[in-house]
């Protein structure tokens, strides 16, 4: 994408915590871009003012050469083909790494909240009750569904399936909670990153 930095420009050392895998092939790029954007969407459903917090994290991690401002961040997220504003672009390796690191850094302060929500989910299931019966879970799920409905393209086949069923969309939101918790664990960020390339790396 035109917003990427060249290899000769400043490269934050923290990018090296994630191994280098080539983003090659349309299938790899589409899956990677979709999963990263959805993870960030879950953070937005959890954290009030999450977009501003992400911009602050970009400054903190010195990612300004990769993600210069909120418009660039939005464009990078619009590489998710499910988006209404899909750009048909492909993330560069530094851009993809930066977004995964941002997601992990934003998830860490939310660890207690995420654990509470997942515990509430298990309690509801053990009692045979719908997950929306728990107030805090219902609040997160409502926020996630609202974000998903407003930003994703209903003409996409999989998106239309989710939009047709609150239960399906709730399950996606809960799955993403588990992914966020995974990212907060020891080497979780690295393991999530590697998982994005499963089946693509020889």
Tell me what you see in this structure:
By secondary structure, the protein is mostly helical. The chain is built from 9 helices and no strands. The protein has helices at 26-46, 50-60, 70-77, 93-107, 111-126, 135-151, 157-163, 166-184, 188-195. The longest helix is centred in the first third of the chain and has 21 residues, at 26-46. The chain is globular and about 50 Å long. The two termini are 26 Å apart. Mean pLDDT is 91; it is low at 1-8.
Low-confidence stretches: 1-8
Overall morphology: globular
Percent helix, as a range, is 55-70%
**Major β-sheet profile:** none
Task: Compute the number of structural domains.
Answer: 1
Mean of residue pLDDT values: 91
Structural class: mainly alpha
Number of helices: 9
Number of strands: 0
Distance between the termini: 26 Å
Over the alpha carbons, how many angstroms does the gyration radius reach?
Answer: 17 Å
- Please indicate the percent range of residues in DSSP E strands (runs of 2 or more): under 5%
Write the H/E string, N to C: HHHHHHHHH
Topology (elements, then pairings):
Blueprint (H helix, E strand, L loop, with lengths): L25 H21 L3 H11 L9 H8 L15 H15 L3 H16 L8 H17 L5 H7 L2 H19 L3 H8 L7
Helix pairs in contact: 1-4, 1-6, 1-8, 2-4, 4-8, 4-9, 5-8, 6-8, 8-9
